[in-house]
Amino acid sequence: MDFFNTILMPFTWVVSWIMWAFHEAFSWLGMDPANGWTWTLSIIGLVLVIRAALIPVFVKQIKAQRGMQALQPDLRKLQQKYKGKTDQLSRQAMTQEQMALYKKHGTNPFSACLPMLIQMPFFFALFNVLNNTAKASQGGQGIGALSADDVAQFDASTIFGAPLSASLLHGGAGNPSVVVLSILMILAMITSQFITQKQIMAKNMSEEALQSPFMKQQQMMLYILPLVFGIGGINFPIGVLIYWTTTNLWTMAQQFFVIRRMPTPGSPAAKALAERRARKGLPMVPLLGERKSEEEALPAPAAPKGQRQQPQRKNRKKK
């Protein structure tokens, strides 16, 4: 456990410092420093800072996901080519050709999980801060950037009568406020996560992508992830549930914007965007992650040195 805390120490300092900064700002604006809502807003502020910093990574994730969808036909051909071949040379050749496909489409299977992987250390750091609040408060100790007074103040803060550091499995089962608020937050957390993933599959995937093996994995994750977080939620302090629910709401709003304004090429959302722009008389712009054809990507041939480039006419009619 000490080794785990050592690894999380830099993230614990970052998380606690951001919370402290927001807490000081809200206190300066006139909110009660000891009030649970002041600390709740500080946790929400932490989410906004982390998610805003991850926007460039999110854009890369979109491109990676669309690249994975675009290579599915080539990937199926490759799997058919090596079907039934289990020898070492065939498997090695298949792996090399598969990596070449990923390089060609500018993607890899791990890029889609990158935002989640980057967030996890901050999530565990926040869990570590909130989970050790009671122990640190009793010992008169600080946690990261939070002083001993800050920790004691946070440990005593409540919303709707439920301490932010309490959870269902750790001292909260006997408090009706903790039970009700925890259950409501867990339901909000898993519902928002389910709606976000369902929205992507219903509106932002092409028909070809819906038939791919990649889609089968997505369908499994649609039900597995909410179940995992729902079961794990009974061990999360209320402050962590607030953090994760706010993160899911951010993701939901972010996905709504992407699906409406930058949908996947060939998806129902892309067709709806084309219809909206057509009604307004606007040209269709290239979608994020859409690859140009080879003819469009090739530059026009340069004119010989000293010769003037002649304009080219399109669709010249014959007399």
Automatic annotation (TrEMBL):
UniProt keyword terms in alphabetical order: Cell membrane, Chaperone, Membrane, Protein transport, Transmembrane, Transmembrane helix, Transport
Task: Give the Low complexity compositional bias ranges.
Answer: 298-310
Keyword Signal listed? The answer is no
Instruction: Check the record and name the InterPro entries matching this protein.
Output: YidC/ALB3/OXA1/COX18, YidC/Oxa/ALB_C, YidC_ALB_C
The similarity annotation says:
Belongs to the OXA1/ALB3/YidC family. Type 1 subfamily.
Kindly state the subunit structure of this protein: Interacts with the Sec translocase complex via SecD. Specifically interacts with transmembrane segments of nascent integral membrane proteins during membrane integration.
Descriptive protein name = Membrane protein insertase YidC
- What organism is the protein native to? Arthrobacter hankyongi
Q: What is the lineage of its organism?
A: Bacteria, Bacillati, Actinomycetota, Actinomycetes, Micrococcales
